[in-house]
């Protein structure tokens, strides 16, 4: 969390105007109604707490366009974007930049729905700058998560942060990811719950993460049991839909009561953008593509090279 004694919203307004909109400090001062010296203090504080970050990019050592084309052909999906360097070490900054480009190209209009999943990568990029403005668009979570202890799985907070960055309107699901049969039945009759999950139908786009193989996975939402025999062969998951290396869907006891985007609705979304970085996700990415979990992938060079190498595809195809 960003910690400061100064007004967080004023910090964000000043940093956005100066660093993203390219305004001079005098213009920023007039825009937010403070003095010129106050703008300097706000910008310095935004840098100190990490709201504003600078990055020196690597000189590309590979042909990113060629690498993306070969990975797209292997996975059989619509598009692949690849960030240079190791994006896990860079806290997914390059992946966030490419997501902004992808969403900008979609020209999301007022009233259109963008679904947002949880997970470490999606959570990290949700609060980044550089996202397109989407006034009037609706940002909707792909599942519950109200009682999750880890921030990366707190779906409503991730949605709120992303809506703040894009100027869109957030919608929240006030329910845990895992329900009892009684709560599940009650939710189906609840107008507030239905008003949100009904927005899953006809969504324009979705931004999802790809979970690593179940066996030995470090980060896992609390609602998925550890040591579950039915998931031992899970190569990964998207929106809590687990699949094996061949893309076959795996169920486990209680999974029918998960508050999650239904598989058929996920597959029906015109543009589903998966974010994934880390060599350990190589089998997850390949299996997720086989399962039809996403139409687009944003990853980094080490991960892309690992996927190709594990598939037996050499440096030049």
Question: What can you tell me about this protein's structure?
Answer:
The structure is a single chain. This protein is α/β, with parallel strands linked by helices and 317 residues long. The protein has two domains: 8-48, Arc Repressor Mutant, subunit A (Orthogonal Bundle); 64-310, Rossmann fold (3-Layer(aba) Sandwich). Helices cover 38% and strands 12% of the residues. The protein has twelve helices and ten strands. A seven-stranded parallel β-sheet has the order 1-10-9-5-2-3-4. Strand 7 (241-243) and strand 8 (249-250) form a beta hairpin. The chain is globular, with a radius of gyration of 20 Å. The chain starts with 7 loop residues before the first helix and ends in a 7-residue tail after the last helix.
What keywords describe this structure?
317 residues; Arc Repressor Mutant, subunit A; Rossmann fold; three-stranded antiparallel sheet; 10 strands
Largest sheet: 7 strands, parallel
Structural class computed from helices and strand pairing? alpha/beta
Percentage of residues in helical conformation: 25-40%
Report how far apart the termini are: 43 Å
CATH fold-level topology of the largest domain: Rossmann fold
Order of helices and strands: HHHHEHEHEHEHHEEEEHEHEH
């Amino acid at each position: 969390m960003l910690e400061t004694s100064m007004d967080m919203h004023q910090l964000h307004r000043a940093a956005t105007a100066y660093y993203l909109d390219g305004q001079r400090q005098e213009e920023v001062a007039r825009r937010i109604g403070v003095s010129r010296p106050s703008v300097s203090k706000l910008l310095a504080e935004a840098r100190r707490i990490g709201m504003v970050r600078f990055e020196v990019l690597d000189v590309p050592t590979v042909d990113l366009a060629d690498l993306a084309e070969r990975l797209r052909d292997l996975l059989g999906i619509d598009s692949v974007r690849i960030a240079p360097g190791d994006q896990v070490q860079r806290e997914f900054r390059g992946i966030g930049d490419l997501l902004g480009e992808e969403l900008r190209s979609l020209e999301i209009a007022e009233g259109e729905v963008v679904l947002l999943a949880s997970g470490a990568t999606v959570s990290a990029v949700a609060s980044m700058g550089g996202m397109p403005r989407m006034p009037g668009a609706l940002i909707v979570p792909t599942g519950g998560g109200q009682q999750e202890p880890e921030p990366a799985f707190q779906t409503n907070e991730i949605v709120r942060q992303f809506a703040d960055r894009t100027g869109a309107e957030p919608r929240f699901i006030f329910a845990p990811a895992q329900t009892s049969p009684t709560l599940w039945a009650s939710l189906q009759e609840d107008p507030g719950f239905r008003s949100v999950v009904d927005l899953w139908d006809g969504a324009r786009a979705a931004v999802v993460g790809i979970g690593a193989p179940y066996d030995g996975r470090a980060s896992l939402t609390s609602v998925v049991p550890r040591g579950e025999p039915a998931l031992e062969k899970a190569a990964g998951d998207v929106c809590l839909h687990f699949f094996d290396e061949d893309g076959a869907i795996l169920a486990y006891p209680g999974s029918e009561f998960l508050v999650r985007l239904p598989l058929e609705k996920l597959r029906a979304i015109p543009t589903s953008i998966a974010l994934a970085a880390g060599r350990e996700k190589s089998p997850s990415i390949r299996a997720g593509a086989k399962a039809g979990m996403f139409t687009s992938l944003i990853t980094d060079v080490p991960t892309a090279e690992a996927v190709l190498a594990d598939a037996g595809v050499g440096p030049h195809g």
